[in-house]
Amino acid sequence: MKRRSARAIAVQCLYIMEMNRVNPDIALRTAMEEALNDNESGMDMTGADELMVYVKEYVHDIVRLKPEIDEILAKYLQGWQVDRLSKVDREVLRLAVFEMVYKDDIPPKVAVNEAIELAKHFGTDESGKFVNGVLGKLIKQLDDIKAAAKPTQ
């Protein structure tokens, strides 16, 4: 299973939920179907069942922790509000904050780099720079943020 593919599908799923106001399971099914049918996606779909379980866990955790994640993000968005961000940038940032703060098995710099790549792929020409700037500020205080964060379980 490739985490990069899982991250991309998770961002797509979160975006589908935001755009269509559907529940996570419907969004997940839609995003997985699109990924499986998109031969040009470049995603490694080996072990699609395992991938779906992984993405489902991510999406459900992010949805459940969205208020906490958005509160963290709000502190590092100079001149922006979370609800005023582009939908793509917002979902990429939510995923990155989730990985950085709530997942111990992912090095924070990997989460940042992956978020930048996702922002470049799904967002505008400026999305990668914007995401890098926000997460660059956040990573400097990550230990304090993690200490104050609620556990995922």
Written description of the protein model:
Helix content is 72%, strand content 0%. The protein is mainly alpha-helical and 153 residues long. The protein has one domain (3-148): N-utilizing Substance Protein B Homolog, Chain A (Orthogonal Bundle). The two termini are 24 Å apart. The mean pLDDT is 90.
Give a brief outline of the structure.
The chain is an all-alpha fold. Helix content is 72%, strand content 0%.
What is the topology?
Blueprint lengths: L2 H18 L3 H14 L10 H27 L12 H16 L5 H15 L4 H13 L2 H7 L5
Examine the secondary-structure arrangement and name the CATH architecture: Orthogonal Bundle
- The CATH superfamily title: NusB-like
The radius of gyration over CA amounts to 15 Å
Terminal residue distance: 24 Å
Uncertain segments of ≥5 residues (pLDDT<50)?
A: none
CATH class label: Mainly Alpha
- Give the overall pLDDT as a whole number: 90
Which range best describes the helical content: under 10%, 10-25%, 25-40%, 40-55%, 55-70% or over 70%?
Answer: over 70%
Number of separate structural domains: 1
Task: State the major sheet.
Answer: none
Structural class, by secondary structure, is mainly alpha
Fill in the CATH topology: N-utilizing Substance Protein B Homolog, Chain A
Helix count equals: 7
Query: What fraction strand?
Result: under 5%
H/E element sequence: HHHHHHH
Shape: globular
